[in-house]
Every structure is written in structure tokens, then in C-alpha cells.
Amino acid sequence: MTAQLAAYSTSTGEAVQFWILGTIAVIGALCTILMKKAVHSALCLAGTMIILAVFYLANGAYFLGVVQIVVYTGAIMMLFLFVVMLVGVTAADSLKETIKGQRWLALLCGLGFGVLLIAGIGSASLSEFNGIGQANAGGNVEGIAALLFTRYVFAFEITGALLITAAVGAMVLTHRERTERAKTQRELSEQRVREGKQLPPLPAPGVYARHNAVDIAGLLPDGTPSDLTVSKTLRERGQIRDVSQEALNDLRALEQRAEERLERKAIEPTTFKRPEEASK
Amino acid sequence: MNPVNYLYLAALLFTIGATGVLIRRNAIVVFMCIELMLNACNLAFVAFSRMHGNLDGQIIAFFTMVVAAAEVVVGLAIIVSLFRARHSASVDDASLMKL
Questions:
Q1: Domain, as residue range, for A49
Q2: What's residue B98's pLDDT?
Q3: A206, A216 in Cβ contact below 8 A?
Q4: Which residues on A lie below 8 Å from B1 (Cβ)?
Q5: Backbone φ, ψ for residue B84 (5° rounding)
Q6: Which residues, at least 6 apart from A168, have a Cβ–Cβ distance to it below 8 Å?
Q7: Which range among A10-14, A32-36, A71-75, B61-65 shows the weakest confidence by mean pLDDT?
Q8: Which band of pLDDT confidence, cut at 50, 70 and 90, is reported for residue A66?
């Protein structure tokens, strides 16, 4: 492996790996920005990050490859998913443009930027490669540690301060100080009466419609489903199952079955008679 | 294969991330695109480290990861508190300071 990494060019195996995984990484990145739901974006990004970890390993950065999987896909992306579940599930991304033509201009800017960047790399003279074999000779982790605790030791210390500041900052930002006294149950009930809200508990979901699943709206006497019976979260997600036509469908199925039954009865005597006729 | 291809891939991923920041309006997705750009930079650092045959590039990529972790913690805390205040994660709604 180290001999290959020290080589002037890479092996065929790595080339195959690069082209296959690189394609998947680009597709994952595109899905990240094109998927409508934030959860799907997060999962696509996690896939791209895992592929990048494989690339780090292929480039001889063994420590970084493992750290990429543990820290990025393990911690950061799961934190993202956590916040998406907390915040973004009900908040769908509206597709209406607030600034006219902004999307096309953004695409144009992105395209121009990409062309500039790639042309810059293409025109740079990057023909000489040393390979990382020699630097990794004493072990990748040992080499990184030796550099980290000698030349970069001050940056490393400052990183510790940064992490502590970030942790404290996150706590300060999400902590909410209660500025007023919490209302007692009596005050809350009096407030409900004053505001004329629904006083008794909300009606149960669909038990009166011959179902007891929570995503089925209970039916009012005239057969229309009542949204009040379904939990607010399900209502906002639009996950209410409509059962107002179910009774009619059941009746139709029953009629159909009855017809089949009657037809069979009409046929059955003839089949029974046949042996009798045969005996006669 | 020439290892410069890793740089091209990094440039492509960075461009996709930058375009995503411009076209998406959900703050969480915008943040994910920023992470994608940081990852693309890391890939370029690692590729450079291999080309030049020393480990400094990997050290810088390591520091980028640490800073990205700190950034994610603070950024997501800001998004959560923004969502609490405005009941929306869209970047268009945070326009209180606009003239």
C-alpha cells in the first residue's frame, strides 16, 4: 500500500474506486441541494461524507478517514438529523421565489464559480508528486501526533478554548430564562373559560368510525370527518386517513360478496345434480 | 489516474455546496451545504498532503474538522432559537434588521 502511495501515479484499483465512488459522491451532493425534505438532504450528505472518508483512507490519511466517519457522519450528521426532527419536519421549504430570477442567477453564479475553480486547477502546474509513503513511514497517527504537539501545539491549545466556548455558547443560546411565574392549573382553566375555548377534553380519534387508530378522524353525526379529533402534529403533516367513504365501500363489498354467493348457489345444485343424473 | 482528480472532485463538491447555499432557503439545508463545502476543502487538503509528501495538509484538515464541529454546535443552536422565536426555519423570515 505504501509503495503504491509513493508511486508517481495511482493504481488502477484506486482509479476504479475513484470514478465509481466519486460519481456517487457528486450524486449525493446534488441530492443534498435538490431534495425537498431536509431529512433526505441530511441522509444524502451523510452518504457523501462516508465516501469522502474512503477517499481520505485511499490518500493515506488513515487517522482523518476514521475521524471523518466518527465525527462527521457519527456526530455532526446525527446532530443535524436531531435538529431536523426537532425543527424542520413541519416546516416545508416553500418553492416560491422571493427575489425574481434569483434561482437562475444563483445557478449561473455557481456554474461560473465552478468553471473558474476547475480551470484554475487545470492550468496550475501540478505534475510532480512525492506520494505520502515517506511521511507515513513511521505510522500516520504517530506522524500527525508528532506535528500536532510540536509545530502546531499553540493552534491545538486554542482549539480547546474554541470547543469550550462553542459548548458554552450553545448552552446560552438554547437556554431560556423564565421571566414570569408559571401559571397554576386553576389560572389556566379560568383562562380557557374566559377565552371560550374547548373546555372538555378533545374528542377521541376515530373510535366512532369503527377504527381506533390515532390517524383516523372521528366522524360527526352527518358522516363528515372532524379534524379536531386528530393530534395537531398529524394534522400539520397532513397524515389524516379519511374513512368517510369506508362504510359505503364496505357495503359495496358486502353486496358483491352476496352476489357471488347467490351465483354459486345457483350453480351448486346443477353440479350436485350431475352425479344423480349420471346414476339415473 | 492522476491524483489531481481528487482536486477536481473537491472543486466540484465545493461548487455544488456554494450553489446550494444560494438556492436553498431552509436554514438547516443551507447549513448542510456549508458542511459540504468544508468537506470539499478537507478533501483538497488531504490530496495536497499526498502530493507534497508531508502531513501538514492533514493537520490543517484536522483543524478544519474541529472548527466545523464547533461551528455546527453554535449554528444549530442559533437555528433552534430562531425557530423558537419565529416558528420557521426559513432564512427569509429572519429579516428584522432589513430596512
A1: 10-88
A2: 77
A3: yes
A4: 9-10, 12, 14-15, 18
A5: -65, -40
A6: none
A7: A10-14
A8: very high
Confidence of residue A8 (pLDDT cuts 50, 70, 90): low
The answer to whether residue A5 neighbours chain B at the CB level (below 8 Å) is: yes
In a domain, B78, yes or no: yes
Q: Report whether pLDDT(B6) > 60.
A: yes
- Please give the DSSP secondary-structure letter assigned to residue A209: G
Number of domains in chain A: 2
* CB proximity A249 to B under 8 Å: no
Tell whether B95 is covered by a domain: no
Q: Which residues of B touch A128 (CB under 8 A)?
A: 51
ipTM of the complex: 0.92
Please give the Cα distance from B50 to A135 (Å, whole number): 9
The per-residue pLDDT for B16 is: 95
Q: Which domain holds residue B71?
A: 4-86
Question: A12: pLDDT confidence band, cut at 50, 70 and 90?
Answer: confident
CB proximity A80 to B under 8 Å: yes
If one counts the domains in chain B, the total is 1
Cβ of A129 and B51 within 8 Å?
A: yes
Question: How far does A157 lie from chain B, in Å, by closest CA?
Answer: 11
Q: Distances from the Cα of A35 to the Cαs of A30, A42, A44, B79, in angstroms?
A: 8, 9, 9, 20
- The residue with greater pLDDT, A10 or A100, is A100
> Residue A147 is placed in which grid cell?
506535528
What CATH code is carried by the domain that includes residue B45? Answer: 1.10.287.3510
